[in-house]
Write a structure and sequence with these properties.
Blueprint (H helix, E strand, L loop, with lengths): L4 H18 L7 H13 L3 H18 L12 H15 L12 H11 L7 H10 L4 H21 L3 H18 L5 H19 L15
Length: about 220
């Protein structure tokens, strides 16, 4: 299939995220490209996909699951369920009456989940709980705050922790060199750094659909 530039960028963004989480330089199999194109046609935001994939991998680690997730298709039900839930919550009329989803309580749970030692924790927590609007607007605001949180943590890292993070990132990057362009490698390095930081410092994913938002 001949993809336009916008579709190609979307597909490679998803590939980068999945392969970083999987910790493997392998490319996506053909069936997974169809999954990613389906998500593009459905209009699923990259930010939501990233947070759901991180959640799926985190839950596997918590369960002590063996082996690696070999296909993006494994995560498709979770991604599509989260997107459908978000669409229902933002649709007019009777869909808004669906129970068991309270953005305000989820925002409070996210604020509470911020580590006590996080630089600027109180200010960030206040900004999280102050978000308002429909769930999609809140999700977009949380994505901005999530990036700010990671950047702030990176700026305040102690030398020893910084060295550990850099070593972990370089270990994965070594397997990606020769397979990705310089630009793709740079994007991969940044995302890997954020992923390792989140794992090492127990940082929550700031999303209405993250496990921490369940309280």
């Amino acid at each position: 299939m001949d993809d336009g530039a916008e579709v190609t960028a979307y597909l490679h963004e998803i590939e980068d995220i999945f392969l970083e989480l999987r910790g493997s330089p392998l490319t996506l199999p053909p069936g997974d490209w169809h999954v990613a194109r389906r998500w593009f046609r459905a209009g699923i935001p990259i930010g939501l996909i990233r947070r759901v994939l991180e959640d799926v991998f985190a839950k596997r680690r918590e369960r002590g699951a063996k082996g690696k997730v070999s296909k993006l298709e494994y995560c498709a039900p979770a991604v599509e369920a989260a997107w459908e839930e978000l669409r229902e919550l933002t649709a007019p009329g009777e869909r808004l009456e669906a129970p068991a989803f309270d953005p305000s309580s989820r925002l409070r749970a996210l604020a509470k989940a911020l580590p006590p030692e996080l630089p600027g924790r109180e200010g960030l927590a206040a900004r999280v709980v102050a978000l308002a609007g429909d769930p999609q607007e809140i999700e977009e605001g949380l994505a901005v705050l999530d990036r700010e949180m990671l950047a702030t943590v990176a700026a305040f890292l102690e030398d020893a922790t910084r060295g550990e993070v850099e070593a972990a990132v370089e270990k994965t990057m070594a397997g990606l060199r020769g397979r990705l362009s310089a630009e793709e490698l740079e994007r991969s390095r940044e995302r890997l750094t954020w992923q390792v930081l989140r794992q090492r410092l127990a940082l929550p994913v700031l999303s209405l659909f993250s496990p921490e938002a369940d309280g």
